[in-house]
Amino acid sequence: MEGLGLVVCGEAAPFSTALRSLVNNPRYSDVCFVVGQERQEVFAHRCLLACRCSFFQRLLGSEPGPRVPSPVVLSTVPAEAFLAVLEFLYTNSVKLHRHSVAVTFGLGPLQERCIAFIEAHSQEALQTRGFLELSAPALLPLLRSDKLCVDEAELVRAARSWARVGAAVLAQPVAEVAAPVVRELRLALLAPAELSALEEQNRREPFIPVEQIVEAWKCHALRRGDEARGAPCRRRRGTLPREHHRFLDLPFK
């Protein structure tokens, strides 16, 4: 029958190896990126990036030709993270390290693996430069995760450091930079002494909306978790036990 045919599949490993050899290879490259504060040159192939990732398709344009600016400057993207993304696009696999999980360019499968990596290595990841250079959209799914292996007090400090770096870069107030993500911090998990210290620090350096701190105090005063809000009282994998936590799973009445 004419409709039937033989499908021949080659070995995946040599194919992946061949494509990996093209990562940051100027040979046959038709687009150059300048990435990171070090302004490292990275060479790539426009057709491959555009067909694999909608971010690059929009960045490089849909029509071929010399109109695409070269080099493309991505000064806020760490070079190691950018190269990890390229390797994934070229080969559909990449070995993640704690310094290379900062940027995912909207790649669903890679983003999921990055989040899982950070969840398993939270303490180390929060101390990296890559964490401080995360965009707000990239930080949001992390702060929403129940699987982070880190206590909330440490996560609050890390989020404040992230916002301070963003404020310096963007010349904006810390609270303004933090606004898109700070609601995901679960302040009700903190003990009263910790919450008092945070409140005092927040007076000196606004970071968290006052009403969010008030909601946390409400959980302590009523000795109830807010079932409607859910996440502000839900423990994470790395949450250290505190005496009041036994009340947080109960709903308001």
TrEMBL record:
<dbReference type="InterPro" id="IPR000210">
    <property type="entry name" value="BTB/POZ_dom"/>
</dbReference>
<dbReference type="Pfam" id="PF00651">
    <property type="entry name" value="BTB"/>
</dbReference>
<protein>
    <submittedName>
        <fullName>BTB domain containing 19</fullName>
    </submittedName>
</protein>
<feature type="domain" description="BTB">
    <location>
        <begin position="29"/>
        <end position="98"/>
    </location>
</feature>
<dbReference type="InterPro" id="IPR042846">
    <property type="entry name" value="BTBD19"/>
</dbReference>
<dbReference type="InterPro" id="IPR011705">
    <property type="entry name" value="BACK"/>
</dbReference>
<dbReference type="InterPro" id="IPR011333">
    <property type="entry name" value="SKP1/BTB/POZ_sf"/>
</dbReference>
